[in-house]
């Protein structure tokens, strides 16, 4: 049954849509696709300002997002989802290239003590644009994240961090980020540490990619990077078993609806692009377009429900995985339909569609592949809880 969108959500969508429209109108996504460092030229745009505030608690934000009668709290999963979906409609790659806390902000919120949170959020919300990263994936351990191999070894009154990370967004351009590493064997021996990228031994290089070049995924080498105990998130306040892995899981569960919104924003942009290119579209072609529009709208509504449930403390891994998988498939499906309705040559002659087609393929892998999401859905189906709220 359809649930009416709240006025608060509608107002936020309209507010962010204006910033997103500027990205589309100026074709900034295509420029960034050519040169992902071009983001540095557009740091004064409203879209960048919005991205910088995402996940930061209100007490650290000088100018919170205010639209109509509402002040928005970007630690809310729903408000984050609404914002990201609209910005992704403007351009997904541009959005991901922006400075701001992105995923690491959620990890710091989940695990950090008061002084770690203050230090991190004040820095990221400060006047200087700050890029961050979330370093979980490793070359030999992607989906099997609990088997990660980067090590945190005691040395004197601190530690040494060593290992490699791969496919980490913005790492080669970031000032700080979170690295997941192993202090002891087993899943509960994982820690999350805050790392400054100018520390000796930290090195990150961008990885050339075919699509979603704005994500600026990078390869990180950690060669005996010095880590003080206070850089370990939750070191003073949480038991070791409640730290690293718990932070990774909470971050991924909180962020998957955001990635779902990202995929849906791109899907909507593709459908609108087809409509713009073929304003007189009729018959079966029109029906095929409308069918996908309906499916995108349905998944968006479901995603809003999932995000609202997270805000209410009801975190359902199977529901979160279900919407993420569906949205990733839809984004790809929309680009396939676009290529069909605009003609096979359009992928060569239409640079915008060519880029959207390449970008949409990334969602399958980001924050867990489709196989991993389907395993989570299966758990819910097997337990008989998937269809229950
Ligand atoms: C644009 C982009 C941005 C990213 N940003 C970040 C980031 O900021 N930080 C970060 O840490 N990572 C990031 N990643 C990495 C992403 O999280 C990984 O790509 C993903 O977790 C999969 O890991 P992998 O690529 O090593 O694939 P693998 O885990 O090696 O998987 C390879 C294949 O095996 C399948 N497979 C693996 N395990 C199972 C299983 N148990 N059952 C069934 N099938 C299985 C997978 O579905 C896949 O098809 C990013 C990736 C992309 C594409």
Largest beta-sheet characterization: 4 strands, antiparallel
Number of spatially distinct domains: 3
What distance lies between the first and last C-alpha atoms, to the nearest angstrom?
A: 13 Å
Rg for CA atoms: 21 Å
Q: CATH-wise, what's the superfamily of the largest domain?
A: Butyryl-CoA Dehydrogenase, subunit A, domain 3
Q: So what's the overall shape? A: globular
Q: State the strand order across the main sheet.
A: 4-5-9-8
**Please, how many helices?**
12
Q: Percent of residues in helical segments?
A: 40-55%
- For the record, what CATH class of the largest domain applies? Mainly Alpha
One letter per element, helices H and strands E, the order comes to: HHHEEHHHEEEEEEEHHHHHH
Portion in strands: 5-15%
Bound molecules: flavin-adenine dinucleotide
Number of strands: 9
CATH topology of the largest domain: Butyryl-CoA Dehydrogenase, subunit A, domain 3
The CATH architecture name of the largest domain reads Up-down Bundle
Low-confidence stretches: none
């Amino acid at each position: 049954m359809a649930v009416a969108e709240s006025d608060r959500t509608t107002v936020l969508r309209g507010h962010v849509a204006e910033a997103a429209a500027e990205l589309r109108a100026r074709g900034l996504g295509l420029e960034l696709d050519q040169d992902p460092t071009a983001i540095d030229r557009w740091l004064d745009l409203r879209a960048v300002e919005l991205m910088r505030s995402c996940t930061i608690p209100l007490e650290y934000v000088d100018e919170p997002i205010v639209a109509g009668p509402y002040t928005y709290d970007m630690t809310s999963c729903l408000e984050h989802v609404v914002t990201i979906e609209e910005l992704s409609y403007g351009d997904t790659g541009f959005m991901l290239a922006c400075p701001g806390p992105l995923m690491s902000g959620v990890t710091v919120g989940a695990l950090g003590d008061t002084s770690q949170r203050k230090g991190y959020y004040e820095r990221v919300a400060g006047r200087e644009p700050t890029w961050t990263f979330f370093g979980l994936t490793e070359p030999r351990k992607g989906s099997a994240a609990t088997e990660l191999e980067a090590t945190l070894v005691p040395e004197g009154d601190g530690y040494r961090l060593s290992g490699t990370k791969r496919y980490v967004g913005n790492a080669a351009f970031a000032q700080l980020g979170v690295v997941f590493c192993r202090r002891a064997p087993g899943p509960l021996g994982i820690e999350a540490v805050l790392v400054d990228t100018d520390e000796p031994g930290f090195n990150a290089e961008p990885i050339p990619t075919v699509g979603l070049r704005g994500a600026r995924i990078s390869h990180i080498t950690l060669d005996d990077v010095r880590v003080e105990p206070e850089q370990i998130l939750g070191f003073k306040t949480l038991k070791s078993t409640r730290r690293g892995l718990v932070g990774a899981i909470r971050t991924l569960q909180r962020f998957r609806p955001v990635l779902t919104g990202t995929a849906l924003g791109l899907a909507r942009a593709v459908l609108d692009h087809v409509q713009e290119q073929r304003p007189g579209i009729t018959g079966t072609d029109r029906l095929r377009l409308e069918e996908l529009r309906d499916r995108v709208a349905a998944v968006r509504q479901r995603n809003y429900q999932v995000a609202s449930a997270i805000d209410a403390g009801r975190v359902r891994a199977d529901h979160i995985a279900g919407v993420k998988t569906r949205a990733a498939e839809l984004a790809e499906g929309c680009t396939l339909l676009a290529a069909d309705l605009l003609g096979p040559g359009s992928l060569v002659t239409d640079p915008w569609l060519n880029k959207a087609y390449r970008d949409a393929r990334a969602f399958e892998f980001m924050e867990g592949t489709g196989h991993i999401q389907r395993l989570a859905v299966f758990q819910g189906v097997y337990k008989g809880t998937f269809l229950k709220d």
